[in-house]
Amino acid sequence: MTAFGGRSVQCSTAAQTGGSICPNTKNYCRDRIEAQAFGGLGGLLNTCGATKLFQMAYAKEIAAANKMLASQQNALNDELVRIGQEIGNLVVAIGREYDSPSIKAKLDGLEGRRAEIQAQSAKPAPDVIAPNPKAESLWQAKMLTLSANLRDGPEGQPFREALRGLIERVTLAPDQTAVHGFMTEVEGALAALLDR
After folding, report:
1. Most CB atoms within 10 A, among 75, 100, 151, 181?
2. CB 41 within 8 A of CB 193
3. Are 29 and 10 in contact (CB under 8 A)?
4. Contacts from 115-122 at CB under 8 Å and sequence distance 24+?
5. How much is the mean pLDDT over the chain?
6. Residue 186: DSSP 8-state
7. In terms of pLDDT, which residue wins out, 110 or 99?
């Protein structure tokens, strides 16, 4: 497409050849092309594939948080075992008459730490983090809002500006069955992100 006056574009081949090679000499409004491209993006974000991608990312974050909770609990259990072994060794040393104030001080410190860990372990374990049952409907509501903002309205302007930087090229293909008479194909970083 070639710029043709202010906010319009036209098939570059038709413009260069005067319509002798490509008969598509129709002018297209840039705003309409942009609205169709961004409207298609909003529709794509509402597809099952995008929702599944969101759900997979959400599940991955929850699994990582649960793994961290389990790791913290395992570390406390390991420390409790180590302290038990050290206390046992000190008790044996005291039994062999290696009794000294430093051994008793060490024993008191270990017993104090064991009591702390046991008190902490007596508390109910934190619940495993579970996905919000309303996550999918929340996602869809946010995507509907984003989709509406992409199409029009001043609140969508920052979104549209950011997305324009990710689009290298928009190709129009005439299609009489389409709402505006053409189909759009977006090329660039945005298309690569959406193909993931």
Report:
1. 151
2. no
3. no
4. 117/76, 117/79, 117/80, 117/83, 118/80, 120/76, 121/76, 121/77, 121/80
5. 76
6. E
7. 110
Q: What angle do CA 45, 182, 184 make, to 5 degrees?
A: 40
Ranking 27-41, 55-69, 153-167 by mean pLDDT, the lowest is: 27-41
Q: How confident is the model at residue 193 (pLDDT cuts 50, 70, 90)?
A: low
| CA dist 81 → 67, 73, 122 (Å) | 21, 13, 16
- Residue 78 pLDDT: 92
pTM of the model: 0.43
Distance CA 73, CA 84 (A): 17
Q: Work out the burial of residue 35: count CB atoms within 10 Å of its CB; fewer than 13 is exposed, 13-18 middle, 19 or more buried.
A: middle
DSSP per-residue string spanning 107-130: HHHHHHHHHHHHHHHHSPPPPPP-
Paired with 3 in beta bridges are: 9
C-alpha span between 26 and 159 (Å, rounded) = 29
Name the one residue in this structure whose structure tokens are 């374990």.
125
At 74, is the secondary structure helix, strand, or coil? helix
Tens-place pLDDT, residues 102-154: 888 888 888 999 899 888 887 776 676 777 777 777 777 777 777 777 766 67
